[in-house]
Write a structure and sequence with these properties.
By secondary structure, the chain is of the alpha+beta class. Helices cover 25% and strands 20% of the residues. The protein has helices spanning 10-15, 55-61, 64-81; strands spanning 23-26, 30-34, 42-48, 92-95, 111-115. Bound molecules: guanosine-5'-monophosphate.
């Protein structure tokens, strides 16, 4: 079943400039901005500018240029926020919640970049 993108989702509105955001980084294919309810000292969302619901949708249908632009944006956010271990940062976690099991709230692909503190184990035991 194909994905059905909702152009009224909140991140589509941010991309159209209808809702303000605190931009951390932007390129031709991606926008990175601070999460409105940060769960860690560093909590940045990176979204593609194209209409993709989730990561598997993007991975299967985005162009090579979109995938490169999005991935480079993640790298730039890590550099800008200083979370890279190679530069003395504590490290970070990248999360892409998807669908019901992933508890995805906004149906536009976004990765969370979390850092600035030790984040604990990845998933709580069942
Ligand atoms: P999800 O559960 O879909 O992975 O996470 C969605 C994230 O989007 C949440 O962490 C939430 O705080 C963030 N968020 C929701 N609405 C807005 C908004 O209008 N602006 C910003 N900057 N973040 C938002």
């Amino acid at each position: 079943m194909a994905y059905d993108y909702d152009p009224q989702n909140i991140f589509a509105k941010i991309l159209r400039g209808e809702i303000p955001n605190k931009t951390v980084y932007e390129n031709d294919h991606a926008l990175a901005f601070e999460d409105i309810q940060p769960a860690a000292p560093v909590h940045v969302l990176v979204i593609p500018k194209g209409p993709y619901v989730c990561y598997d949708h993007f991975a299967q249908e985005a162009s090579d240029a979109e995938i490169i632009g999005f991935t480079r944006a993640i790298g730039e956010v890590c550099r800008i926020t200083g979370v890279q271990p190679s530069e003395g940062g504590l490290g970070f976690r990248v999360i892409a919640n998807t669908g019901q099991a992933g508890v995805q709230e906004v149906p536009h692909l976004h990765v969370h970049i979390l850092g600035g503190r030790v984040l604990g184990r990845m998933v709580a035991p069942a």
